[in-house]
Structures are given as C-alpha cells and as structure tokens.
C-alpha cells in the first residue's frame, strides 16, 4: 500500500516537472496545472496482442513523463460493440480523455459526440474515427508511405518482376484494404513487371496464413513473392515457404512486427518487413492528448520531447503524423515490439 | 441382469454391426468427385508434393481431436470447448518452450494439460450434472480467458524448429509423420470401438443410457474416459499446431471446434449419439479439407469457401437422410 502511495507521489511530482518543462518549451501557452494527474483512457481494437501492448508501453512512458494516469482496457476480440461498451463505461467514469484504435470508422461517432458534451476529450489513434467530435487523431504513417515502402521492399527482393500473391487479414478491414489498393497503385505505376495473381484472406490467424500460402504455392508454381498484409500473415507465409523448401526462391515480405518475424529474418526466409514503431505511436498519442488537455496549440511541425523525429500536424483533420515507415531487417530486428 | 433387460440391450449392441455403409460410400464418392474436379481445374497442381503435404498435415491436426470428439458424441455428449483447450494447452506448453525447456520435457506438459482440461469438463458433466453443451460452453469461455492470462498479451514465438522438422517436414511411408500418427490413432480407435467391450458400451450408452445402466454398464466411467481422451488428443493437436505454425496467439484454436464437429457430423456420427464410425470421421475431415484446398487451387474468390463448405455439408447430410428414410 505504502509502495503504491509512494509511487503515486513520485508520479505526481514527475508530472509536475513534466508540465513545467512542457510549458517552458512551448512559450505562449499557459499550462493549466491540475492538482491530480488527468486520467487518459485508451481502448484498443482488442487486447492480448503484442502490437497494442507496445502502444500501451509508449502511452505509459508518456503518462510518466508528462504526468497522466493511463487506463488501458479493450475487448478480447476485435468487436465493434465490445469496444463501444467499454468506451461508454469510461465516459460514465468521467475520465479526462478517452480514445480508441477504432474497429469501425463510423460506429463510434455517437460516443465521440456524447464524450464531447460531457467535456471529455475524445481522440483516436492508430485506426481513426470519423466526424467533427474527434478532438485529436494520431496517425502512425501515411497509408501511401507504408504501402509504397512494402512494394519497394518486394521489388528489391524479387528483382523487379514476377508473379506475386497477397495474404491479408479480414476481407473487410478498412486499413488493410486501403493498403492493398495503394500497393496495386504502386505496382501499376512503378513496377509493371510485377503481376499480382491472387489475394487470399487468413484473418488474424497464423495457421490459416500458413495453410493458405501452402495452397498458393501449389496453385501458382511460378510465384516469386508473397506479401503479408497483417502481422500474422507474414510469419505464416514465411513458415509455409520454409516448409516447402522454397526459402530464397520465393520472397516473403509485408507489414509485421519484429517479434513475430525475428526467427524468419534470422534463418534467411525473410529479408525485410515494414512497420512503424508502435511504442512511439503510443508515446506520441500521450503527448498529443496532454497538449490538448492543457490547451496548447500544435504547430505545423512539432518537437516532442523524447522523440527523435519532428512530428507534423494537419489542422484540417486534427491529425498528428508519426512519420515515415520503418524498414525492419537483420540490422534492427532486435527491436522489442 | 434379467432376461428382459438383456432383450432390450441386445439389439442396441447389435445395431452397430448393421450400420448402413451408405454414408461412407457417399462421402467417398463426394471426395472422388471433388478431387477429380480440383485436379482438372488446377492442371494437376493438386497432386504437387507441397499441396498434398499441406492437405495431410491440416487433416491430421483436425482428425486427431475428431477421434476423441466422435467418441464423446457417440456417448450422447458433446464438447464445444475443444478450441479453447487447444489454445490454453498451446499457451501453457509454449510458455515452457519460452522458458527454455526442451522438446522432450515439454511434450508431457502438452498431454497432461489437455487431459486435465478434459477431466474438468468430465467432472462438471458427470458430478456437476450439467448438460454437456452448457458445461463446455462455460469452459470454452473460461479456458479462453486463461489463455489471455497465461500469455499476458504477448505472443510466444520461441517454438523449437525441431517440432516442425519432426512432425511436419519429415516423411514416413510417403506421408508427413503427423499424418502417419493420425492414421495409427484412427485405426486404433476403430478397432477399440469394434472389438473391445468398452468400445461396444460406448454405442450402447449413446443409444439408451438407462438401458445401458440396467445392463450393468457404468456410464460415468465411459463418459469420464471419453472427455479425458478428447482433452489428451487435443493437447497433442496443440503441439502439432505449433509444428504447423510456430506461434502461440491469444486466438490460437478459436473456431477450431467448429471444424472438428463439422468433420465428425459430416462423417455420419449422429449428434444424438450411438451411431457413427471412425472411417466416417476420417472421410468427413478429408472432405472439409479438400473443399478448403480447392478454393485456392481453383482460384475462386475466397469468400466462396464458406459457401462451398456449407453446401457440401448440407448436401451430404440431406442425401443421407433421404437415403435412410427410404432405406428404413
């Protein structure tokens, strides 16, 4: 008990220091120091997956640094109604800010409105909510930047030409489908020699991804590359390629995290994959909310204490953009997220 | 045992031998037609080594728990928690791998965890007198939440590659090792059901529990053995799943039970108990897997996969119901 109180006091003290530092950095904005640290709640698409745990890690770091109490709660499956229920209960608890990585861009609009009416800041991060009542959006990287980076890695791996297939997650996932569309665009514009022969869907299930990739390898014997669109599709595809003894003959790349793909990068089946840093995304989210709560304005380019890169802000959509995608290969696969 | 009870129980025991082979023949024909169509449509890609291996590994991992599920359903019960048992067992075993345990030391952990989870189901059903579907619906949810607790929102990727090599990549008699194991289990289970007293009691129990009890059969013991065996086999399947794809996720195994029950029911085992065979279960599993395989090989839009599978199940069951009504 004493330990917890101590910790609380320390956190509060740290928080005050953080507030002062923040106020000093951004002249002109009067920080509204509060007696107790504000509570920021984040509701991910689902809990129990490393990606959102990494975001939470970043949020916690920001909470510590800038003086906020972080609540992390989410549904156990990526369900729209499950997420809405949790957001509703957090609004009823009167947290200072509540936000989501949205399971649907539209279904949470009503809750955003309700939060605003009760003077609770509503934000979205990672996967956005539409509408005028969202006070802040935090975007990992532009969809275009990410999709193009993946196609560039693919082209590099297969030498710019050949048949390729995509293995995606859910057929209705907004962000995955947006990336696929942009990837096709990049292929058509820059790599006319690369032909996309099939898109399969394996959900968030690595076994299904392995199975589907094995079937793709049989159905298209001349396949040169496979692109996994979500974090389970890439290791699943790599496992199938490895099992078929095609390591080095069929390239595997895509969007996934270092923890999931590490064994395959180490054994050479996968050369590189693309992602952003979810810890930084969580951290930036925490920073951005504190700015909003303290009524400090964003600039076109912002210096965030603790982040190396400058962060751009788009006033029209109220969006903070973390930055360029991160290419993960043998040199940095030891990153832990 | 009185004469009267014996006359009740005798035809029940005998009915097993008069099982109509209609379902098996129908499934075999379905399978032949499917394979023929897919071979033609895929220009022979169906017969490639990669595809056949894929098909056999997927079938083996489904059919191993399906053996246990067949017996459970034959006793008149059901277990809908199998996917969660697979997930929790994988999480527990995976945690051991992550802690640096050897393969040999961890295999018993998989089997024991599966058996214990099956035992809990059995005790709830037998001692708790909770209907099987409700009891296992409860544990489906509890076991799944325990997966979240055990994994603590991390995925386990530290799975020894030897697991893949031994069970999935290596071959024995032209088949992946896991498929040979599955066949041995199937034959063992079929012989057990046919030639051992306990095996015949399984059918008797499923046909009429009261009559079986009067005939001196102890239903509790048979049910206990059936659920524990299903748990054990599911624990083994969890190990094989990690050989197939080396990662434990919080979602590992979700949706798996539908695949298993679909294979068993398509194979002709009656959900009311007392009727069904291991051969049927094998054929049911193969049909499910071949349909799934064909969707990709025939380059059909993936959304049609669910539709095709549903149609095959409805057609097979519809046809055999028709056949049985006419035959009766």
Describe the structure.
The complex is a heterodimer of chains A (337) and B (328). Helix content of chain A is 43%, strand content 18%. With 337 residues, chain A is an alpha/beta fold. In chain A, the strands form three sheets. In chain A, strands 2-1-3-4-5-13-12-11 form an eight-stranded mixed beta sheet, sandwiched between helices. In chain A, strands 7-6-8-9 form a four-stranded parallel beta sheet, with helices on both faces. In chain A, helix 1 packs across helix 2 and helix 7 (206-219) crosses helix 8. Chain A starts with a helix and ends in a 9-residue tail after the last strand. Chain B has 328 residues and is mainly alpha-helical. Chain B has one domain (20-327): ABC transporter involved in vitamin B12 uptake, BtuC. Helix content of chain B is 75%, strand content 1%. Chain B has 14 helices and two strands, in the order H-H-H-H-H-H-H-E-E-H-H-H-H-H-H-H. In chain B, helix 13 (278-297) runs antiparallel to helix 14. The two termini of chain B are 31 Å apart. Chains A and B meet through helix 2, strand 7, helix 7, helix 8 and helix 9 of A and helix 3, helix 6, helix 7 and helix 13 of B.
Structural class of chain A: alpha/beta
Structure summary, number of beta strands of chain A: 14
Query: Can you tell me the residue ranges of chain B where pLDDT is under 50 for at least 5 consecutive residues?
Result: 1-8, 10-19
The helix/strand order of chain A is HEHEHEHEEHEHEHEHEHEHEEEE
Number of discrete helical segments of chain A = 10
Q: What's the alpha carbon Rg of chain A, rounded to whole Å? A: 21 Å
Task: Provide the CATH superfamily of the largest domain in chain A.
Answer: Response regulator
CATH architecture of chain B: Orthogonal Bundle
Q: Key terms for this structure?
A:
heterodimer; A: 337 residues; alpha/beta; Rossmann fold; 8-stranded mixed sheet; 4-stranded parallel sheet; 10 helices; 43% helix; 18% strand; disordered N terminus; B: 328 residues; mainly alpha; ABC transporter involved in vitamin B12 uptake, BtuC; two-stranded antiparallel ribbon; 2 strands; 75% helix; globular
């Amino acid at each position: 008990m004493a330990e917890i109180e101590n910790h609380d006091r320390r956190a509060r003290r740290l928080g005050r220091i953080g507030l002062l530092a923040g106020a000093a950095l951004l002249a002109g904005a009067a920080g509204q120091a509060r007696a107790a640290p504000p509570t920021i709640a984040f509701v991910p698409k689902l809990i129990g997956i490393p990606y959102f745990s990494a975001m939470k890690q970043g949020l916690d770091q920001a909470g510590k640094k800038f003086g906020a109490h972080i609540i992390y709660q989410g549904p156990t499956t990526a369900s729209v109604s499950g997420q809405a229920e949790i957001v509703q209960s957090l609004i009823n608890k009167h947290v200072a800010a509540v936000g989501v990585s949205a399971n649907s861009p539209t279904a949470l609009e009503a809750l955003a409105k309700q939060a605003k009416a009760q003077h609770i800041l509503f934000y979205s991060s990672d996967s956005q909510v539409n509408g005028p009542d969202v006070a802040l959006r935090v975007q990992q990287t532009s969809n275009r930047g990410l999709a193009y980076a993946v196609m560039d890695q693919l082209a590099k791996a297969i030498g710019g030409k050949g048949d390729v297939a995509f293995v995606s997650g859910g057929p209705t996932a907004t962000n995955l489908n947006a990336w696929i569309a942009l990837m096709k665009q990049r292929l058509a514009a820059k790599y006319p020699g690369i032909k996309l022969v099939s898109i399969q869907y394996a959900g968030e299930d690595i076994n299904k991804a392995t199975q589907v990739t094995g079937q793709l390898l049989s159905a298209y014997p001349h396949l040169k590359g496979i692109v996994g669109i979500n974090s389970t599709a890439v290791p699943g595809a790599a496992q199938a390629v490895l099992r078929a003894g095609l390591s080095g003959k069929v390239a595997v790349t895509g969007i996934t995290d270092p923890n999931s793909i590490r064994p395959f990068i180490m054994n050479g089946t996968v050369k590189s994959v693309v992602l952003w840093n979810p810890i930084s995304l969580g951290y930036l989210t925490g920073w951005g909310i504190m700015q909003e709560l303290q009524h400090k304005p964003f600039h076109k380019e912002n210096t965030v204490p603790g982040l190396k890169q400058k962060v751009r802000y788009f006033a029209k959509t109220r969006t903070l953009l973390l930055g360029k995608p991160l290419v993960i290969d043998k040199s940095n696969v030891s990153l832990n997220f | 045992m009185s004469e009267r009870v014996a006359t009740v129980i005798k035809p029940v025991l005998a009915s097993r031998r008069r099982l109509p082979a209609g379902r098996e023949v129908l499934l075999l024909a379905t399978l032949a037609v499917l394979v023929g169509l897919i071979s033609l449509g895929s220009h022979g890609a169906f017969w490639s080594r990669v595809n056949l291996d894929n098909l056999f590994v997927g079938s083996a991992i489904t059919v191993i728990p399906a053996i246990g599920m067949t017996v459970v359903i034959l006793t008149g019960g059901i277990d809908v928690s199998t996917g969660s048992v697979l997930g929790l067992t994988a999480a527990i075993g995976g945690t051991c791998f992550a802690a640096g345990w050897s393969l040999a030391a961890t295999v018993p952990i998989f089997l024991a965890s599966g058996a214990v989870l099956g035992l809990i189901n059995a005790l709830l059903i037998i001692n708790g007198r909770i209907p099987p579907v409700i009891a296992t619906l409860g544990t489906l949810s509890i076991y799944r939440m325990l997966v979240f607790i055990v994994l603590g929102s991390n995925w386990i990727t530290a799975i020894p590659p030897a697991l893949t090599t031994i069970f999935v990549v290596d071959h024995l008699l032209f088949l992946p090792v896991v498929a040979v194991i599955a066949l041995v289990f199937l034959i063992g289970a079929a012989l057990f059901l046919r030639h051992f007293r306990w095996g015949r009691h399984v059918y008797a129990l499923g046909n009429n529990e009261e009559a079986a009890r009067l005939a001196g059969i102890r239903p509790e013991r048979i049910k206990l053995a059936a659920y524990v065996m299903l748990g054990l086999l599911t624990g083994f399947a969890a190990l094989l799943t990690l050989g197939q794809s080396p990662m434990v996720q919080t979602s590992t195994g979700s949706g798996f039970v539908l695949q298993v029950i679909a294979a068993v029911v398509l194979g002709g085992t009656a959900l009311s108990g007392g009727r069904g065979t291991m051969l049927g279960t094998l054929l049911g599993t193969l049909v499910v897997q071949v349909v799934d395989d064909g969707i990709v090989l025939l380059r059909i839009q993936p959304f049609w996969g669910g539709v095709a599978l549903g149609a095959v199940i409805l057609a097979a069951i519809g046809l055999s119901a028709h056949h049985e009504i006419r035959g009766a």
